[in-house]
Amino acid sequence: MVAETIKSFCGDRQTTVCRICGETLTETTVTSGQQPYETTWILCGACGSWSIGREPDIERLNAFYSDYSVHHKMAATNTDANDGKRYSDEWRETREREYRLSINDIGLELEQGKDLVDFGAYDGVFLDVCRATQPNMGKTTAVDYPREDTLHLAVRGHNFEPINEWLAGESLTDIVTLWDVYEHIADLPGLLTTLSRRVKSGGQVLIQTPRAHVHAQILGPQWHHFLPVQHLQLPSREGILRQFDRYGFTAVQVASFGANAPGSIIPQPYKQLFDTLAKLGDLGSTQLIRFVRR
Ligand SMILES: [Zn+2]
């Protein structure tokens, strides 16, 4: 029964090539999580990214995310990256502060009249922060699975578009943001093809995603981005830059932050020291990249 549940989320087919760069994977694996959510990732020797060990069953993953809150709580782990905690009401202020910092760190200029699409917008808090930063932006669109409270987005001044409709759409946009979402995407080539078609020449794509780097090597399963079921790929910087280049995007700014030092375990002032060193040295556990469409 338990084995069936895992298989239904992660599929039957063993992953043999890197989901980021397409090269053959190594023998190095990391396994994290408890049954029935135990998940294995495999290292790419060519670009340093990690790919989930079994090709995900997209229909089951879609069901998982459409019932987001329930499954996120069930798949909970004891880290600050636990999405059940991150997306709770008591964490909203923390998220808003993080979003403002990241927007600043990556040089996202929210110009008057420019349209912005937030892909994987979930509850729309990132768009709220963008609008608060630049009240005269153009259209702001949340793209995600329809949820009960999707109407709340309209009240807050955002449009809503279901994921599949946006992926199939044609109209051009100025800015697309993917905040904490790239690592969850089952069909990366499909998304990248859509981005290359729908982002204007000179338009921008901004990404915040885990960065496979020394943290993964040293911490192994304790690296908080080895998040069972949900994280399908964990890109190195080199891997993701090469991947986007193939679809017509040039990286114009990169940054990283976070020392994977949970506040519940690492006391201050050491946590602040570790996090500051990670950011100053560009050795962070989470990366920010600003791409421009050529
Ligand atoms: Zn690779």
Automatic annotation (TrEMBL):
It comes from the Bacteria. Gene3D superfamilies: Vaccinia Virus protein VP39. This is SAM-dependent methyltransferase.
